[in-house]
Amino acid sequence: MAAKQGKKDNRLSDKEAMHLAEITDVSPQQAKDLAEKAKAEKEAKNFKAEG
Questions:
Q1: Per-residue pLDDT reduced to its tens digit, 26-50
Q2: Which of 39, 49, 45 is nearest to 7 (CA)?
Q3: Which of 14, 23, 38, 50 is most exposed, with minimal Cβ within 10 Å?
Q4: Helix (H) or strand (E) holding 49
Q5: Residue 28's pLDDT is what?
Q6: How far apart are CA 37 and CA 26, in angstroms?
Q7: Under a CB-based contact definition with an 8 Å cutoff, are residues 39 and 8 in contact?
Q8: Longest C-alpha distance within the chain, in Å?
Q9: Mean pLDDT computed over every residue of the chain
Q10: In Å, how far are 10, 38, 46 from 49, measured between CA atoms?
């Protein structure tokens, strides 16, 4: 199956999640979850503003 063209993978890498976990005292999985939630909220605000 072909990968989607033009879409950037904005998920946190394991290395980025570990760094965020170290400086914020959350687990790496929590860091990934929070980053995805923040991204979803930003996209929702942009969608609402365009509509």
A1: 999 999 999 999 999 999 999 888 8
A2: 39
A3: 50
A4: helix 28-50
A5: 93
A6: 15
A7: no
A8: 39
A9: 83
A10: 21, 17, 5
